[in-house]
Give the backbone structure.
Amino acid sequence: MDFFEVVIRNKRFKEFKADQSLYADQVKQLMACAQLAPSLSEIQNFTYIIIDDQALKQKIADGVEDLSWIVNAAAIFAVVVVSDEEDADDTNIIDAIIASSQLMMAATTLNLGCSLVVDFDQDFIHSLVGITDEWNNLNVIALIPIGATLDKGLQGYKRTLAELSNHNTLGQPYPYE
């Protein structure tokens, strides 16, 4: 599958096949793609917690409103960012987002579906994944459920190219033709 096909096929999925898992080599490929992402800080001040324990996925599903569907994902990648450096928080978050985007594109390449979840109680998730007060400089900024899917995914609203792009100054449409 070429890059443009991956971009077109990359959607938000919420229906995963139950009782499936990711192979270790799939996890390694996903993480390698995140590892190789461009970085503003060049220090990759983030990490992932790969959650594949069924009981833990169930606790997340039960404890976060509107996330009951997440339990059937093969794994949930919790994106954890270091947030104690002065003025580095935004850079660390941007780096983690870039890496997570590459991880999600890699999932699409592996014919897996994924989604990006950012609306949850951080303290609740922290308590489940072992981020205690001694780790007060760490924050889970996103959950990325990944797995084989049952649905066709949701593309969502997309602005037109004309609405999305300007030429040299704001309000000047780019002359695509």
